[in-house]
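Hi everyone, sorry if this is the wrong subforum. Our group has a chain we'd like a structural model of before ordering constructs, and none of us has done structure prediction before. Sequence below.
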Amino acid sequence: MAEGARQAASLSGPTWICALEQTAGRGRRGRAWAMPPGNFAASLVLRPDVGPGDAALCSFVAALGLRDALLGAGVPEGALSLKWPNDVLLNGGKVAGILLESIGAGARIDNLIIGIGVNLAGAPAAAEVEPGALPPVSLHAETGVTISPEDFLDLLAPAHDRWERQFTTYGFAPIRTAWLSHAARLGETITARTTRDEIVGRFADVDIEGHLVLETAKGAQRIAAADIFF
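Answer:
Right subforum, don't worry. Here is the predicted structure as tokens:
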């Protein structure tokens, strides 16, 4: 993502940058992201014609592309689910994460960088993630599938492009419908932790702005950003 930001102004169109080794990986809210050898780390640099609110919806596009790429690698369809707002789960464990960063000022976005990490070959130890978080899993350990980062990018790039074109042409509505059809724990009670509150409720929906909708004792609550715990 840092390299994408460095090159962004000189790129003529959408560009993937893939790192075969990563020593300063990061996740949401500045958390560290571990990358054992053989895992996938890549960023897509875009110049979107959208505002900050719509740019945030690109994580749903990326999640659907990731799911299709994993299916293309040989993962059984029933083994995959999508965790709001930006994770892909394999057999209930976290196999991939998505991070968005924008470059611009005010309401203008000059470039959007979509960072994607996938545990292809190995996963960090459970002790390396925060208490209560889903355990990390790897594609190889869960399915026996072995694939190189370069070959995985060959699956991911066209898969993401298909969903990106649909988003650009038809808006978020079909993306939302597709994402919800694969959502983890939809209809179940989950916990959302924001920077200020902890909200427990039934995962009822994702609205047209990409917000999580929880049905709580105080009524429906729309949550724009949070960490989710099952």
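For your construct planning: The first strand starts at residue 15 and ends at 19. The mean pLDDT is 92.
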